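Exercise 7 asks you to align residues with C-alpha coordinates for two separate proteins.
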Amino acid sequence: MRVGPVAWAFETLAEVLKVAKETARVTHDHPEGVKGAQATAAAIFLARSGAAKWEIREEVERRFQYDLSFRLDDVRPFHVFDSSCQGTVPQALVAFLESEDYETAVRLAVSLGGDCDTLACIAGAVAAAFHGGVPGPIREQALDRLDDDLAGVVAAFEARFPPSAG
Protein backbone atom coordinates (compact mmCIF):
# COMPACT_ATOMS: atom_id res chain seq x y z
CA MET A 1 0.00 0.00 0.00
CA ARG A 2 2.90 2.40 0.59
CA VAL A 3 4.52 2.05 -2.79
CA GLY A 4 2.22 4.43 -4.66
CA PRO A 5 4.35 7.58 -4.24
CA VAL A 6 7.33 5.78 -5.79
CA ALA A 7 5.42 5.66 -9.08
CA TRP A 8 5.15 9.44 -9.04
CA ALA A 9 8.68 10.29 -7.88
CA PHE A 10 10.62 8.83 -10.80
CA GLU A 11 10.62 9.43 -14.53
CA THR A 12 11.18 5.93 -15.92
CA LEU A 13 9.63 2.55 -15.28
CA ALA A 14 13.10 1.13 -14.62
CA GLU A 15 13.68 3.66 -11.82
CA VAL A 16 10.23 3.01 -10.37
CA LEU A 17 10.82 -0.75 -10.30
CA LYS A 18 14.23 -0.36 -8.68
CA VAL A 19 13.01 1.92 -5.90
CA ALA A 20 9.79 -0.09 -5.40
CA LYS A 21 11.98 -3.12 -4.74
CA GLU A 22 14.15 -1.21 -2.28
CA THR A 23 11.18 0.19 -0.35
CA ALA A 24 9.35 -3.14 -0.26
CA ARG A 25 12.32 -5.06 1.11
CA VAL A 26 12.19 -3.06 4.34
CA THR A 27 9.01 -4.81 5.50
CA HIS A 28 8.25 -7.38 2.78
CA ASP A 29 11.60 -9.08 2.33
CA HIS A 30 10.07 -11.95 0.38
CA PRO A 31 10.07 -12.34 -3.41
CA GLU A 32 6.27 -12.22 -3.59
CA GLY A 33 6.13 -9.05 -1.48
CA VAL A 34 8.66 -7.33 -3.68
CA LYS A 35 6.86 -8.53 -6.82
CA GLY A 36 3.54 -7.17 -5.54
CA ALA A 37 5.02 -3.78 -4.73
CA GLN A 38 6.70 -3.57 -8.12
CA ALA A 39 3.52 -4.62 -9.95
CA THR A 40 1.52 -1.99 -8.08
CA ALA A 41 4.09 0.73 -8.72
CA ALA A 42 4.32 -0.25 -12.39
CA ALA A 43 0.55 -0.06 -12.81
CA ILE A 44 0.42 3.39 -11.19
CA PHE A 45 3.36 4.64 -13.25
CA LEU A 46 1.81 3.38 -16.49
CA ALA A 47 -1.57 4.86 -15.55
CA ARG A 48 -0.09 8.28 -14.80
CA SER A 49 1.92 8.09 -18.03
CA GLY A 50 -1.21 7.73 -20.17
CA ALA A 51 -1.19 3.98 -20.84
CA ALA A 52 -4.51 2.40 -21.78
CA LYS A 53 -6.03 -0.17 -19.47
CA TRP A 54 -5.19 -2.99 -21.87
CA GLU A 55 -1.55 -1.86 -21.89
CA ILE A 56 -1.42 -1.86 -18.10
CA ARG A 57 -2.99 -5.34 -18.01
CA GLU A 58 -0.56 -6.73 -20.59
CA GLU A 59 2.53 -5.23 -18.93
CA VAL A 60 1.63 -6.50 -15.46
CA GLU A 61 0.75 -9.96 -16.77
CA ARG A 62 3.94 -10.19 -18.85
CA ARG A 63 6.39 -8.72 -16.38
CA PHE A 64 5.00 -10.14 -13.12
CA GLN A 65 3.11 -13.23 -14.28
CA TYR A 66 -0.10 -12.15 -12.57
CA ASP A 67 -3.24 -13.51 -14.20
CA LEU A 68 -5.60 -10.57 -14.63
CA SER A 69 -8.04 -12.34 -16.95
CA PHE A 70 -10.64 -13.22 -14.30
CA ARG A 71 -13.77 -11.21 -13.52
CA LEU A 72 -14.55 -9.99 -10.02
CA ASP A 73 -18.10 -11.36 -10.26
CA ASP A 74 -16.61 -14.82 -10.74
CA VAL A 75 -14.29 -14.68 -7.70
CA ARG A 76 -16.39 -12.59 -5.31
CA PRO A 77 -18.38 -15.57 -3.92
CA PHE A 78 -15.17 -17.42 -3.04
CA HIS A 79 -12.92 -14.53 -2.05
CA VAL A 80 -11.57 -14.73 1.49
CA PHE A 81 -9.22 -12.61 3.58
CA ASP A 82 -5.75 -13.00 2.15
CA SER A 83 -3.15 -10.38 2.99
CA SER A 84 -0.52 -11.84 0.67
CA CYS A 85 0.41 -10.01 -2.49
CA GLN A 86 -0.89 -12.94 -4.53
CA GLY A 87 -4.24 -12.54 -2.77
CA THR A 88 -4.51 -8.76 -3.11
CA VAL A 89 -2.57 -7.26 -6.01
CA PRO A 90 -4.26 -9.10 -8.92
CA GLN A 91 -7.71 -8.59 -7.38
CA ALA A 92 -7.10 -4.88 -6.81
CA LEU A 93 -5.78 -4.41 -10.33
CA VAL A 94 -8.79 -6.19 -11.81
CA ALA A 95 -11.04 -3.89 -9.73
CA PHE A 96 -9.31 -0.96 -11.43
CA LEU A 97 -9.51 -2.60 -14.87
CA GLU A 98 -13.24 -3.25 -14.51
CA SER A 99 -13.98 0.24 -13.19
CA GLU A 100 -15.36 3.28 -14.97
CA ASP A 101 -13.88 5.88 -12.64
CA TYR A 102 -12.09 6.35 -9.32
CA GLU A 103 -15.10 5.71 -7.12
CA THR A 104 -16.10 2.58 -9.01
CA ALA A 105 -12.56 1.18 -8.68
CA VAL A 106 -12.59 1.62 -4.91
CA ARG A 107 -16.13 0.27 -4.56
CA LEU A 108 -15.33 -2.81 -6.64
CA ALA A 109 -12.23 -3.47 -4.53
CA VAL A 110 -14.14 -3.13 -1.27
CA SER A 111 -16.93 -5.36 -2.60
CA LEU A 112 -14.57 -8.31 -2.51
CA GLY A 113 -14.32 -8.16 1.26
CA GLY A 114 -11.31 -9.69 2.94
CA ASP A 115 -8.32 -7.36 3.08
CA CYS A 116 -10.44 -4.62 1.56
CA ASP A 117 -8.40 -1.68 2.87
CA THR A 118 -5.37 -2.97 0.95
CA LEU A 119 -7.47 -3.79 -2.11
CA ALA A 120 -9.03 -0.31 -2.08
CA CYS A 121 -5.67 1.44 -1.60
CA ILE A 122 -4.14 -0.34 -4.58
CA ALA A 123 -7.16 0.00 -6.88
CA GLY A 124 -7.67 3.61 -5.82
CA ALA A 125 -4.04 4.55 -6.37
CA VAL A 126 -4.06 3.18 -9.92
CA ALA A 127 -7.46 4.73 -10.66
CA ALA A 128 -6.39 8.14 -9.32
CA ALA A 129 -3.31 8.06 -11.55
CA PHE A 130 -5.38 6.94 -14.54
CA HIS A 131 -8.19 9.48 -14.10
CA GLY A 132 -6.11 12.49 -13.08
CA GLY A 133 -6.54 12.39 -9.32
CA VAL A 134 -9.15 11.72 -6.69
CA PRO A 135 -12.38 13.48 -7.71
CA GLY A 136 -13.04 16.79 -5.95
CA PRO A 137 -15.92 15.85 -3.62
CA ILE A 138 -14.27 12.59 -2.51
CA ARG A 139 -10.93 14.36 -2.09
CA GLU A 140 -12.49 17.15 -0.01
CA GLN A 141 -14.32 14.68 2.25
CA ALA A 142 -11.08 12.79 2.83
CA LEU A 143 -9.09 15.96 3.54
CA ASP A 144 -11.72 17.09 6.06
CA ARG A 145 -10.96 13.95 8.09
CA LEU A 146 -7.21 14.60 8.29
CA ASP A 147 -5.48 16.60 10.96
CA ASP A 148 -3.46 19.63 9.88
CA ASP A 149 -0.15 17.75 9.74
CA LEU A 150 -1.48 15.00 7.46
CA ALA A 151 -3.35 17.52 5.29
CA GLY A 152 -0.02 19.32 4.93
CA VAL A 153 1.64 16.12 3.74
CA VAL A 154 -1.06 15.70 1.10
CA ALA A 155 -0.68 19.33 -0.01
CA ALA A 156 3.10 19.03 -0.27
CA PHE A 157 2.82 15.81 -2.26
CA GLU A 158 0.26 17.27 -4.66
CA ALA A 159 2.37 20.40 -5.12
CA ARG A 160 5.40 18.34 -6.03
CA PHE A 161 3.56 15.66 -8.05
CA PRO A 162 0.40 17.17 -9.52
CA PRO A 163 -2.04 14.63 -10.93
CA SER A 164 -2.15 14.38 -14.69
CA ALA A 165 -5.03 12.85 -16.59
CA GLY A 166 -4.02 9.56 -18.15
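Second protein for Exercise 7:
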Amino acid sequence: MTTPSLSTRDLTIRFGGHVAVNQVSADFYPGTLTVIVGPNGAGKTTYFNLISGQLPATSGSVHLDGVDITRYGAARRTSMGVGRAFQLTNLFPNLSVIENVRLAVQSRAGIGMNMFSVWFSHKELISRAEHYLERVALADRRDTRVAALSHGDKRKLEVAILLALEPEVMMFDEPTAGMSVDEVPVVLDLIHQVKAERSKTVLLVEHKMDVVRSLADRIIVLHNGTLVADGNPVEVMASPIVQEAYLGAPEHA
Protein backbone atom coordinates (compact mmCIF):
# COMPACT_ATOMS: atom_id res chain seq x y z
CA MET A 1 0.00 0.00 0.00
CA THR A 2 1.28 3.46 -0.84
CA THR A 3 1.91 6.01 1.90
CA PRO A 4 -1.24 7.93 2.83
CA SER A 5 -1.28 11.52 1.62
CA LEU A 6 -3.70 12.46 4.40
CA SER A 7 -4.31 10.93 7.81
CA THR A 8 -6.38 11.73 10.86
CA ARG A 9 -5.57 10.21 14.23
CA ASP A 10 -8.14 10.17 17.05
CA LEU A 11 -9.48 13.43 15.64
CA THR A 12 -11.98 14.93 18.08
CA ILE A 13 -13.89 18.15 18.58
CA ARG A 14 -16.22 19.06 21.43
CA PHE A 15 -18.70 21.90 21.55
CA GLY A 16 -19.42 22.25 25.26
CA GLY A 17 -20.60 18.83 26.35
CA HIS A 18 -21.33 17.66 22.81
CA VAL A 19 -18.74 15.54 20.99
CA ALA A 20 -19.31 16.33 17.29
CA VAL A 21 -16.41 14.22 15.99
CA ASN A 22 -15.21 11.44 18.24
CA GLN A 23 -11.68 9.99 17.87
CA VAL A 24 -11.87 9.44 14.11
CA SER A 25 -8.78 7.77 12.64
CA ALA A 26 -8.50 7.22 8.89
CA ASP A 27 -5.90 7.17 6.11
CA PHE A 28 -6.55 8.56 2.64
CA TYR A 29 -4.51 7.61 -0.41
CA PRO A 30 -3.67 9.11 -3.81
CA GLY A 31 -5.86 7.75 -6.59
CA THR A 32 -8.74 6.92 -4.25
CA LEU A 33 -12.07 8.71 -4.00
CA THR A 34 -13.56 8.31 -0.53
CA VAL A 35 -17.18 9.26 0.08
CA ILE A 36 -18.13 10.18 3.64
CA VAL A 37 -21.76 9.43 4.44
CA GLY A 38 -24.01 9.42 7.46
CA PRO A 39 -27.31 10.81 8.71
CA ASN A 40 -27.84 14.50 9.37
CA GLY A 41 -25.81 15.57 12.39
CA ALA A 42 -23.38 12.67 12.01
CA GLY A 43 -20.35 14.99 11.94
CA LYS A 44 -19.46 14.76 8.24
CA THR A 45 -19.01 18.47 7.52
CA THR A 46 -17.43 19.03 10.93
CA TYR A 47 -14.87 16.34 10.08
CA PHE A 48 -14.20 18.17 6.81
CA ASN A 49 -13.79 21.42 8.75
CA LEU A 50 -11.22 19.78 11.02
CA ILE A 51 -9.24 18.46 8.03
CA SER A 52 -9.28 21.71 6.07
CA GLY A 53 -8.55 23.88 9.09
CA GLN A 54 -11.82 25.75 9.49
CA LEU A 55 -12.14 24.36 13.01
CA PRO A 56 -9.40 23.61 15.58
CA ALA A 57 -9.40 20.09 16.97
CA THR A 58 -10.03 19.54 20.65
CA SER A 59 -7.67 16.57 20.47
CA GLY A 60 -6.12 14.22 17.94
CA SER A 61 -4.15 15.17 14.83
CA VAL A 62 -4.17 15.71 11.07
CA HIS A 63 -1.18 14.73 8.91
CA LEU A 64 -0.37 15.64 5.32
CA ASP A 65 2.32 13.45 3.74
CA GLY A 66 3.40 12.53 7.26
CA VAL A 67 3.69 16.15 8.43
CA ASP A 68 1.57 17.13 11.44
CA ILE A 69 -0.56 20.07 10.27
CA THR A 70 -2.97 20.04 13.22
CA ARG A 71 -1.97 23.50 14.43
CA TYR A 72 -2.00 25.10 10.97
CA GLY A 73 -4.85 27.32 9.85
CA ALA A 74 -6.90 26.89 6.70
CA ALA A 75 -4.76 29.22 4.55
CA ARG A 76 -1.54 27.39 5.34
CA ARG A 77 -3.15 24.00 4.76
CA THR A 78 -4.37 25.21 1.38
CA SER A 79 -0.87 26.36 0.42
CA MET A 80 0.46 22.93 1.42
CA GLY A 81 -1.99 21.09 -0.80
CA VAL A 82 -5.31 20.65 1.01
CA GLY A 83 -7.99 22.10 -1.27
CA ARG A 84 -11.66 22.35 -0.49
CA ALA A 85 -14.58 23.44 -2.64
CA PHE A 86 -17.94 24.62 -1.37
CA GLN A 87 -16.94 26.49 1.73
CA LEU A 88 -19.35 29.26 2.69
CA THR A 89 -17.43 31.66 0.49
CA ASN A 90 -14.30 31.27 -1.55
CA LEU A 91 -15.13 33.90 -4.11
CA PHE A 92 -14.49 37.61 -4.75
CA PRO A 93 -18.01 38.79 -5.64
CA ASN A 94 -17.00 42.14 -7.13
CA LEU A 95 -14.42 40.64 -9.48
CA SER A 96 -15.15 38.89 -12.73
CA VAL A 97 -15.27 35.13 -13.15
CA ILE A 98 -11.95 35.08 -15.04
CA GLU A 99 -10.26 37.28 -12.42
CA ASN A 100 -11.27 34.89 -9.63
CA VAL A 101 -9.71 31.91 -11.41
CA ARG A 102 -6.70 33.90 -12.56
CA LEU A 103 -5.91 34.81 -8.95
CA ALA A 104 -5.92 31.10 -8.08
CA VAL A 105 -3.62 30.31 -11.01
CA GLN A 106 -1.36 33.17 -9.94
CA SER A 107 -1.26 31.91 -6.36
CA ARG A 108 -0.40 28.39 -7.53
CA ALA A 109 2.41 29.80 -9.68
CA GLY A 110 3.86 31.59 -6.65
CA ILE A 111 3.55 35.04 -8.22
CA GLY A 112 2.78 38.10 -6.12
CA MET A 113 -0.81 39.14 -5.79
CA ASN A 114 -0.67 42.56 -7.48
CA MET A 115 -3.89 42.13 -9.38
CA PHE A 116 -3.50 44.46 -12.35
CA SER A 117 0.23 44.69 -13.08
CA VAL A 118 0.43 40.91 -13.37
CA TRP A 119 -2.82 40.72 -15.35
CA PHE A 120 -1.36 42.18 -18.53
CA SER A 121 2.21 40.92 -18.26
CA HIS A 122 1.49 37.22 -17.75
CA LYS A 123 -0.77 36.12 -20.57
CA GLU A 124 -0.07 32.50 -19.74
CA LEU A 125 -1.94 32.99 -16.46
CA ILE A 126 -5.00 34.18 -18.33
CA SER A 127 -4.72 31.27 -20.75
CA ARG A 128 -4.61 28.77 -17.89
CA ALA A 129 -7.54 30.47 -16.17
CA GLU A 130 -9.55 30.22 -19.39
CA HIS A 131 -8.68 26.52 -19.57
CA TYR A 132 -10.23 25.90 -16.15
CA LEU A 133 -13.32 27.93 -17.04
CA GLU A 134 -13.79 25.79 -20.11
CA ARG A 135 -13.56 22.65 -17.96
CA VAL A 136 -16.47 23.84 -15.81
CA ALA A 137 -18.49 25.21 -18.74
CA LEU A 138 -18.18 28.85 -17.66
CA ALA A 139 -16.14 30.22 -20.55
CA ASP A 140 -19.12 32.22 -21.77
CA ARG A 141 -19.40 33.93 -18.35
CA ARG A 142 -15.71 34.90 -18.10
CA ASP A 143 -16.35 38.66 -17.79
CA THR A 144 -19.42 38.42 -15.55
CA ARG A 145 -19.18 39.76 -12.00
CA VAL A 146 -19.34 36.84 -9.60
CA ALA A 147 -22.10 38.54 -7.61
CA ALA A 148 -24.34 38.22 -10.68
CA LEU A 149 -23.87 34.45 -11.07
CA SER A 150 -26.52 31.89 -10.22
CA HIS A 151 -25.94 29.59 -7.26
CA GLY A 152 -25.04 26.72 -9.59
CA ASP A 153 -22.54 28.80 -11.55
CA LYS A 154 -20.90 29.96 -8.33
CA ARG A 155 -20.38 26.34 -7.33
CA LYS A 156 -18.92 25.54 -10.74
CA LEU A 157 -16.58 28.51 -10.32
CA GLU A 158 -15.47 27.12 -6.95
CA VAL A 159 -14.55 23.88 -8.71
CA ALA A 160 -12.55 25.83 -11.30
CA ILE A 161 -10.67 27.62 -8.52
CA LEU A 162 -10.00 24.32 -6.75
CA LEU A 163 -8.65 22.79 -9.98
CA ALA A 164 -6.50 25.87 -10.60
CA LEU A 165 -4.86 25.53 -7.18
CA GLU A 166 -3.83 21.96 -8.10
CA PRO A 167 -4.04 20.62 -4.54
CA GLU A 168 -2.87 17.15 -3.59
CA VAL A 169 -6.03 16.58 -1.56
CA MET A 170 -9.36 17.66 -3.09
CA MET A 171 -12.39 17.94 -0.84
CA PHE A 172 -15.96 18.35 -2.11
CA ASP A 173 -18.74 19.04 0.39
CA GLU A 174 -22.10 18.04 -1.14
CA PRO A 175 -21.09 19.21 -4.62
CA THR A 176 -24.57 18.95 -6.16
CA ALA A 177 -26.53 20.64 -3.36
CA GLY A 178 -28.69 23.49 -4.60
CA MET A 179 -27.92 22.87 -8.26
CA SER A 180 -30.49 22.55 -11.01
CA VAL A 181 -30.90 19.23 -12.81
CA ASP A 182 -29.08 20.68 -15.82
CA GLU A 183 -26.09 21.86 -13.78
CA VAL A 184 -25.42 18.68 -11.82
CA PRO A 185 -23.83 16.63 -14.65
CA VAL A 186 -21.12 19.25 -15.27
CA VAL A 187 -19.76 19.05 -11.73
CA LEU A 188 -20.13 15.28 -11.44
CA ASP A 189 -18.29 14.83 -14.74
CA LEU A 190 -15.44 16.99 -13.43
CA ILE A 191 -15.16 14.87 -10.30
CA HIS A 192 -15.18 11.74 -12.47
CA GLN A 193 -12.32 13.25 -14.50
CA VAL A 194 -10.29 14.04 -11.38
CA LYS A 195 -10.89 10.51 -10.12
CA ALA A 196 -9.85 9.00 -13.48
CA GLU A 197 -6.48 10.77 -13.30
CA ARG A 198 -5.69 8.65 -10.22
CA SER A 199 -3.15 11.16 -8.89
CA LYS A 200 -5.27 13.07 -6.37
CA THR A 201 -6.66 12.12 -3.01
CA VAL A 202 -10.36 12.95 -3.22
CA LEU A 203 -12.80 13.23 -0.30
CA LEU A 204 -16.49 13.77 -0.87
CA VAL A 205 -19.40 14.37 1.49
CA GLU A 206 -22.62 13.39 -0.23
CA HIS A 207 -26.20 12.44 0.65
CA LYS A 208 -27.44 11.31 -2.75
CA MET A 209 -26.97 7.58 -3.04
CA ASP A 210 -26.83 7.53 -6.84
CA VAL A 211 -23.88 9.94 -6.66
CA VAL A 212 -22.22 7.84 -3.95
CA ARG A 213 -22.55 4.65 -5.98
CA SER A 214 -21.23 6.24 -9.17
CA LEU A 215 -18.14 7.82 -7.61
CA ALA A 216 -17.00 5.94 -4.51
CA ASP A 217 -13.90 3.75 -4.39
CA ARG A 218 -14.38 3.62 -0.64
CA ILE A 219 -17.07 4.67 1.82
CA ILE A 220 -16.63 5.94 5.35
CA VAL A 221 -19.71 6.13 7.55
CA LEU A 222 -20.01 8.51 10.48
CA HIS A 223 -22.76 8.21 13.07
CA ASN A 224 -22.99 10.50 16.09
CA GLY A 225 -19.47 11.69 15.30
CA THR A 226 -17.99 8.19 15.38
CA LEU A 227 -16.59 6.20 12.46
CA VAL A 228 -18.80 3.10 12.29
CA ALA A 229 -17.87 1.63 8.89
CA ASP A 230 -15.03 1.98 6.40
CA GLY A 231 -14.38 -0.05 3.29
CA ASN A 232 -15.58 -1.31 -0.08
CA PRO A 233 -18.78 0.52 -1.18
CA VAL A 234 -20.81 -2.63 -1.83
CA GLU A 235 -19.90 -4.21 1.50
CA VAL A 236 -20.29 -1.01 3.50
CA MET A 237 -23.69 -0.12 2.07
CA ALA A 238 -24.92 -3.67 2.72
CA SER A 239 -23.75 -3.79 6.34
CA PRO A 240 -26.45 -3.78 9.03
CA ILE A 241 -24.99 -0.81 10.86
CA VAL A 242 -25.20 1.30 7.70
CA GLN A 243 -28.71 0.12 6.93
CA GLU A 244 -29.74 1.22 10.41
CA ALA A 245 -27.66 4.35 10.85
CA TYR A 246 -27.79 5.79 7.37
CA LEU A 247 -30.49 4.24 5.24
CA GLY A 248 -33.14 4.37 7.92
CA ALA A 249 -33.86 0.67 8.41
CA PRO A 250 -35.59 0.03 11.73
CA GLU A 251 -33.28 -0.78 14.59
CA HIS A 252 -33.58 -4.14 16.25
CA ALA A 253 -35.58 -4.24 19.46
